[in-house]
Input
Amino acid sequence: MLAILVGGILASAWYFAFRKRGRTRLIGLASAGLLLGGGWYLATRQRPAEIGTLRHTGTVFRVAFSPVGYTLASVSSDTTDTTVRLWDAQTGALKWTLSGHTNRVVPLAFSPDGNTLASGSLDTTDTNVRLWDAQTGALERTLSGHTGLLSSIAFSPLEGNTLASGGADNNVTLWDAQTGALKRTLSGHTGGVSSVAFSPDGSTLASGSLDTTVRLWDAQTGALKRTLTGDTGRVSSVAFSLDGSTLASGSYDNNVIRLWDAQTGALKRTLSGDIVGVSSVAFSPDSRTLASGGADNNVTLWDAQTGALKRTLSGHTNMVVSVAFSPDGRILASGSYDKTIKLWWLE
Output
């Protein structure tokens, strides 16, 4: 079995070959299937591999895969590029460019059914969350209510009826995603909220903050369940494993990732190594691998069960600020200050 990229398309195929004078020559292909790539590429079993690069004209601050299929969304946090872009991750084609934000765009999230895309602005003159039809690119509604910079948004995972957002006003805001009504505001952080994430069953909302803490909230009542302490630096990113057992948090300052028991709040382990300034963490769909990006310009893959460093993916020329797995776990996307999105083939 091998993979071959022809004209920008990666196909997996059975092959027939013979060796002559120490070289293997490909003589037959059959049963090809499609996946993304760029240019001509020949690979055997070596994984992961960089398979494509997509570009913005500004810093790529967030990437997110649709829960359905291979649609990839990206946003740019740059005053010269305030767009949201939707890509076909199988072909690399740009599907939509969504315009409307008047300043830098940072947070980004798909609804559980993949039909709605939420994006938010970083600048104080445009502190709105916009909801877009992910199929047509049409603007559905605008949510207003934050008084500071927006940095993170997330849909509740079951029916997607609730949208959570966090920002520089130190608060987490819960919205009715269907009507746009503000449901409640969760207060308690003493620094800006940098990241929000729902547990897979939708019962708990985690928020990471520049105040160095992670807070776990009851997603239905808004009550504070517990506060996780241990970081001495700003928390940049939080993510639940898809099996609901583990919460990961990354720190800008301490160059470490902490894995917490999502039920008890106990610290399970600390991941550290040759990493600098962790800005984003994400679990693979099978919960076995954790990806992180940071100021060392690399993407790092960790064994989520043992904490062992599995692989470092190099190629970006500036800080990696966002990482995301495709729904099937085969592709990892990374967004960077170098204005590119790199796509990595993992299987």
Observations:
- The two ends are 12 Å apart (CA to CA).
- Residues 50-345 form a domain with the Methylamine Dehydrogenase; Chain H fold (CATH 2.130.10.10).
- The longest strand covers residues 23-36.
